[in-house]
Amino acid sequence: MRNLVSVGTGLALLAALGINVALAADPAKEETGKEIAYNSSKGNCLACHAMPTMPDAEQPGNSGPPLIAMSARFPDKKVMRAKIWDATATNPNTIMPPFGKHKALTEEQIDKVVDFVYGL
């Protein structure tokens, strides 16, 4: 019992200090496509693209086309995925980073971003 109190006290102290402690029994939260797209160290789509249908998209960029009506613009979802994977394959002068080719995102992360963006 004494050890449990010590562990509980230690976790409470770490939490009070703002240190996030993950317990082994807690499964890791899986990132969504939106979270990856909005994350400035991952997809960072908002750095270049506006997402007019997303009111929480603060300070969107304007150097890339707005991400609206994506399923109408890309009837074949695979074409849009290929652009995210490596836009230089169809446009060598693009400023869009090749997220897959340069391994900035994993295959799974790209699939999640594609699913998210395709729904916009």
Can you characterise this structure?
This protein is mainly α. The protein has a single domain, classed as Cytochrome c-like domain (Cytochrome Bc1 Complex, Chain D, domain 2, Orthogonal Bundle), CATH 1.10.760.10. Helices cover 39% and strands 0% of the residues. It contains five helices and no strands. The longest helix has 15 residues, at 2-16. The protein is globular, with a radius of gyration of 20 Å. Residues 1-24 form the signal peptide. GO terms for molecular function: electron transfer activity; heme binding; metal ion binding. This is Sulfur oxidation c-type cytochrome SoxX. InterPro entries: Cyt_c-like_dom, Cyt_c-like_dom_sf, Thiosulf_SoxX.
What distinguishing features does this structure have?
about 120 residues; Cytochrome Bc1 Complex, Chain D, domain 2; globular; disordered N terminus
Brief summary of the model shown:
Helix content is 39%, strand content 0%. It is built from five helices and no strands.
Percent helix among the residues? 25-40%
Question: What is the CATH H-level superfamily?
Answer: Cytochrome c-like domain
Shape: globular
Largest sheet: none
Q: Can you tell me the CATH topology? A: Cytochrome Bc1 Complex, Chain D, domain 2
Which stretches are low in confidence, meaning pLDDT under 50 for 5 or more residues running? Answer: 1-5
Mean pLDDT: 81
Distance between the termini: 53 Å
Class inferred from helices and paired strands: mainly alpha
**Count of helical segments?**
5
Radius of gyration: 20 Å
Number of domains: 1
> In percent terms, what proportion of residues is strand?
under 5%
What is the architecture at the second tier of CATH? Orthogonal Bundle
Q: What's the quaternary structure here? A: single chain
Order of helices and strands: HHHHH
CATH class: Mainly Alpha
Number of DSSP-assigned strands: 0
